[in-house]
Design goal:
Layout (H helix, E strand, L loop, with lengths): L1 H27 L2 H168 L3 H48 L11 E5 L4 H7 L4 H10 L2 E3 L6 E5 L3 H17 L4 H29 L7 H9 L4 E2 L2 E2 H18 L4 H10 L14 H11 L4 H9 L11 H13 L6 H18 L4 E7 L4 E6 L6 H18 L7 E6 L9
Parallel strand pairs: 7-8
Antiparallel strand pairs: 1-3, 2-3, 4-5, 6-7
Helix pairs in contact: 1-2, 3-9, 5-7, 6-7, 7-8, 9-10, 9-13, 10-12, 10-13, 11-12, 12-13
């Protein structure tokens, strides 16, 4: 634009100069010179106009190029705005979908609440029925106590009658002795007369009579032996019932039924997301470290831990509580807490065993046996807590032995250790009674205790006096109503068989049965098993389970191959 102005000004100046020059030439030189000046001025004006036109075209071209660039920039901005609009729409659709899912979960939670209310009402009705049954049982027990008191009074009267009868028998015995002496004299007199009449000597007659007496005595002895045996058997049964009833009446009938789930309460439902972790990594790390399935559902402010092994379930419960309280939930922290809790549980097991031995007033028990006694707390036998069953058996055996004037301490020791073979951690094919007997021998227990432990299921011959007592006490503790549940024991054995079967394959590190036996997770050694072999291993395990086990539904086999690289910064 400035160049145009300069050209215009130049042209104007040239025109003015031409006019002035024209006038001057007209005045000085004449009309010829004026004409030349005018032509020169016109030429300069034409050149100025051409320069102005050229500069105008260049400016127009630059303006058009700038306009094109602005149009392209505007189109790019419009395209970016359209993309942003599409992304916003997608986010709105996702939020709408999440909102719909949340509404669906709320509806499901309402249905669960309704079902829970119905279940609570049913449990309340059942509790009322149990209360009525307990009241009826209490009245029956009172009636039995009254009947027992009457029988005691009757027994006292019978004892007085027996004493009177005994005195009468003593008087009769004295009379019989005197009569026997008189008869002896009479017999001697008759013998002399018979010798004279029969012509037989006394020795010959004695031998003849002796043969007759021997035959008669044999018949009488056989009859008397039968009567004595029948009377002894009747008295033995009566005394045995008396001893067992006394032991049962003096022993508490408490028992514990173990479940397969544990509930961990949390402060709010927001903590469930932290427990699960990004893409579920926290919950997978927790299940891999503990072998317990974590169920995070719509139950308000609660997380459920499921697993058939009570020790692993207790470790998982305490670990999860500590992780929630700490707030730092990630795979490395999970493994650290689980390892620490495992050590604490082992210490608690030893403390439980020591406390049990002290409560039963037993001394000199080997530390390894004490640890196994503590493990009984986390083991069940047909649904009955094994430690409670062993303590109950020990007390009953001690009372029975005391009633029979035997060693009560020895019987109590054998009763406590009779099921010790069930908590041995190694896989042993022998019966638990034989395993327990070998353990007792290994740790220098008394031979009578070893025999009682090994013979309480008749696997070996009973040679100790306390062996039948321990067997009877075991039967009393396990056979009372409500003590055991056969179904739970079979369920646990099936899960243990499932884990044992999967562990038999090469390269398998750890095996956990979860989902009530509907899924089994196999952790393999990444150095021994490749990715391709992991696929084949899952197929082989499923085929072996299918051919060797019986189970309802189907069993999912999950093989996990994990590679870890660890380095330490020093």
């Amino acid at each position: 634009m400035e160049a145009i102005m300069v050209a215009v000004i130049t042209a104007v100046v040239a025109l003015v100069a031409g006019i002035a020059l024209d006038r001057f030439v007209l005045q000085r030189q004449g009309h010829g010179q004026v004409a030349r000046a005018r032509s020169e001025a016109q030429r300069l004006l034409a050149d100025a106009e051409q320069e102005i036109e050229r500069l105008r075209y260049e400016r127009i071209e630059k303006a058009e190029e700038a306009l094109v660039r602005q149009r392209q920039d505007l189109e790019r901005e419009q395209e970016e705005a359209r993309r942003t609009l599409r992304r916003s729409k997608q986010r709105i659709d996702q939020k709408q979908e999440k909102l719909n899912k949340r509404i669906q979960r709320v509806n499901e939670r309402e249905n669960l609440l309704h079902k829970a209310a119905e279940a609570v009402e049913a449990l309340r009705k059942e509790a009322d029925q149990h209360r009525q049954a307990a009241e009826t049982l209490r009245r029956q027990i009172e009636g039995l106590h009254q009947d027992l008191e009457q029988r005691r009074q009757r027994a006292a009267r019978l004892e007085q009658q027996a004493e009177a009868r005994l005195k009468e028998l003593e008087d009769r015995d004295a009379a019989l002795n005197s009569e026997r002496e008189r008869l002896r004299h009479m017999v001697e007199e008759q013998i002399r007369k018979l010798e004279q009449v029969s012509g037989l000597t006394r020795r010959e007659a004695r031998e003849m009579l002796l043969e007759q007496f021997v035959d008669e005595a044999r018949l009488e002895a056989a009859s008397l032996v039968k009567e004595i045996r029948d009377e002894a058997r009747l008295k033995a049964n009566r005394e045995a019932r008396k001893v067992i009833l006394t032991a049962i009446q003096r022993t508490a009938a408490s028992h514990a039924i173990e479940n397969t789930v544990s509930v961990v309460n949390i402060q709010s439902d927001e903590m469930k997301g932290r427990i699960i972790g990004r893409e579920g990594r926290n919950i997978r790390a927790f299940e891999a470290a503990t072998g317990i399935e974590v169920i995070v559902d719509d139950t308000p402010e609660a997380v459920i831990l499921s697993g058939f092994n009570p020790v692993r379930r207790e470790i998982a419960r305490i670990s999860l509580i500590r992780l929630v309280q700490d707030g730092r939930i990630h795979p490395a922290r999970i493994e650290e807490v689980v390892e620490k809790v495992t050590e604490e549980i082992e210490e608690e097991i030893i403390e439980t065993g020591e406390r049990t031995v002290i409560d039963l007033n037993l001394h000199g028990v080997h530390p390894e046996l004490i640890r196994l006694i503590g493990r009984m707390r986390y083991r069940t036998s047909y649904g009955q807590n094994l430690l409670a069953h062993s303590i109950e058996t020990a007390r009953i055996a001690s009372l029975i032995a005391a009633e029979l004037n035997l060693d009560a301490t020895m019987a109590r020791r054998a009763g406590l250790l009779h099921d010790i073979g069930k908590v041995v951690e190694e896989d042993i094919e022998q019966p638990h009674a034989i395993v327990g007997m070998e353990l007792c021998r290994k740790y220098k227990e008394h031979p009578d205790v070893c025999n009682a432990v090994g013979a309480h299921h008749d696997e070996i011959e009973m040679t100790a006096m306390i062996s039948p007592i321990v067997q009877a006490a075991d039967a009393i503790s396990g056979a009372r109503p409500g003590a055991r549940r056969e179904a739970l024991e079979n369920y646990i054995k099936r899960l243990e068989k499932l884990e044992e079967l999967a562990s038999s394959f090469e390269g398998v590190g750890r095996v956990y049965a979860i989902q009530a036996g509907r899924e089994i997770r196999v952790m393999v050694n990444h150095e021994l098993v490749s990715d391709a072999q992991a696929e084949q291993l899952a197929s082989d395990i499923s085929k072996k389970i299918q051919s060797e086990m019986q189970y309802p539904g189907q069993v999912k086999v999950t093989v996990i191959r994990e590679v870890r690289s660890v380095a330490y910064a020093k």
